[in-house]
Each structure stands twice: as C-alpha cells, then as structure tokens.
Amino acid sequence: MELYPLKVFLTVATEKSFSRAGEKLLRTQPAISLAVQRLEAELSEKLLDRTGRELVLTDAGKIVLEYCRRFENLEREMDNALAELRDMAAGRLSIGANESTCLYLLKHIESYRRLYPKVKVQVRRTLSSKVPAQLIDGDLELGVVSYDPEDDRLENRIIYIDHLSFVLSPQHRFAGRKSISIKELGMETFIAHNVLSPYREVVIKAFQRAKVQLNMDVEMPTVETIRKMVQKNEGVAFLPKMCVEQELEQGLLAEVEVEELRVDRKIRLVYPARRALSHAANAFLEVVQGPKSE
C-alpha cells in the first residue's frame, strides 16, 4: 500500500472537506476524491459517508484514521532521525505535561535551550492520565507525571519530589499557625480542582479516616484560579508546593502543615521502554538529572 492515499485520507478526515484537503495538499478536488476512492477500493471498505452535508467517518474510516495518524508519527520520527544525522544538535522534542508539572519543566527547558538552541521544544499541556497512552502511540516522546504509570511499555525516573501544600490567605485565622490538626478543618470551604487526580482521593480518604467533613463547595478549572480565590480568602486549598512557591515567598499566600496529611508528590519523567529515544530526548534526560534535580 502506498502512503500517499493515507495522507490524503488523513487530510480529508481532518479538514472534513475534499476541497480544503486539496488546498492544503496543493491538489485538485477531483484528484483528492479519486485518491480516497482508490484507497476504499484497495481496502474493500467504505471510509466516508458522503450522503449528508458534512463528511462523516464510517466505523472502518475511524480505524483507518487512527493508523494514518500513526503513520504520520512514524514519518515525523524519520524526519527527526535524518535531521539528527546531518546535525547532532537539530531535531524536535515533544513533552507532555499537565498544568502543575509544566511549571516544573520551565527551569529545565531554559537550561536545555542554552545547550541545544537548534532543537525545537514543544510542551503540550495534556491531562496527566492521558500521557502514558500518548507516549505509547508515539504522539509524545517524553512525559512528566506525578504518579507511577505501572506499565511495562514505559520507563520512568523520579526527577523531583514535591508535596501537597495546605495554603490559605494571610488574612485567614489559621495563617499564623505552624501546624493544625485535620479535625480543625471541618468548617473550612475548600477550593478544589475539577480534574480528578490520585492526590484528590488521598485528601478525601484522609478526611474520611478522621471523620471530618470535607466541604469542597467550589471547584475551579485551573490552579491559577484556585490560587486567586484563596488569596481573596474565599476558601483554602491543597495545591502542589511547586505551584505556590512564588506566592508564599511574596506573602500572597500562607502555608500551614496539616499534621495528619503529609503527601509527597514524586514527579516522574516517563518515556517508551521499547522505542529508541532521539538524541534530543536523551539530552533532555541528562539535563533534568543534573545536580539541581537530585
């Protein structure tokens, strides 16, 4: 099977239009339509439902589309490998991370860019739970997560140990305390992140064990919005320490230790176990494992 018809089909499926696909591939609409027809004939499957106003993928079309994306990823890997043969410093590096772990990456990316200025670095913000699958499928080369994926197809290295920080406004009645008991928090309003995570479950179970009510009456979509609400004394929150270090230093937030709830967050760099890493990725591994990350 030739790869060109697959590329045409991928473009048509992505653009949802033969004409737009033709413009993108610099081909006429009849040529695009013919390429898709030939692919359907070769596979003996109808890939597109053309009866409506918009193109709709059939079940077979959805399967073929997934493999087209994998072929595209393989082609990108080939291009990167050839670029590296011509210039050891060239290439592209894609890293997946969620909102909080993106912050941890910043200092390492700065160091990496100073050493390898020709490498194009792309950090994709993605749900932490999706990083392992994206690594296995080849959509990402490296990922940063705060849990062990427990998958034989992936390798992971602990590169930083953070902890959950109980933060509140400097005007809060607990702000002057060094530590408090979880039993004192039954009347507090907690500003929670609306993305489920293992650490959210750890906090919930700790309150259940202590038989203390956990009032998560407000849920916000980002760490930034949670920080702002806590600063305004609208509630309290558990946030990764790395996400509030600057606010703590500036006195915009206060941190108090919860005696029964010390939760470490092990930040892990994750990558495929059975696929060779590019020089760019290997170099990044070396950067994050420097003295500052031990």
Descriptive report:
It is a single chain. With 294 residues, the chain is of the alpha/beta class. Helix content is 43%, strand content 22%. The protein contains ten helices and 13 strands. It has helices at residues 3-15, 18-25, 29-43, 59-86, 99-115, 131-137, 198-210, 223-231, 245-250, 279-288; strands at 48-49, 56-57, 92-97, 120-125, 142-145, 154-168, 179-180, 189-193, 215-220, 237-240, 254-255, 257-258, 264-272. The strands form four sheets. Strands 3, 4, 5, 6, 10, 11 and 13 form a seven-stranded mixed sheet that branches. Strands 1-2 form a two-stranded antiparallel ribbon. Strands 7-12 form a two-stranded parallel sheet. A hairpin with a 6-residue loop joins strand 1 (48-49) and strand 2.
What class, by secondary structure content? alpha/beta
Q: Which segments are poorly predicted (pLDDT under 50) over 5 or more consecutive residues?
A: none
Query: How large is the share of residues in beta strands?
Result: 15-25%
Choose one word for the global shape: elongated
Q: Mean pLDDT, rounded to whole units?
A: 89
Specify the helix fraction band: 40-55%
Cα-atom radius of gyration:
24 Å
Counting DSSP H or I runs of 4 or more residues, the number of helices is 10
The string of secondary-structure elements, in order, is: HHHEEHEHEHEEEEHEHEHEEEH
Q: How many individual β-strands? A: 13
Instruction: Kindly report how far apart the N and C termini lie.
Output: 49 Å
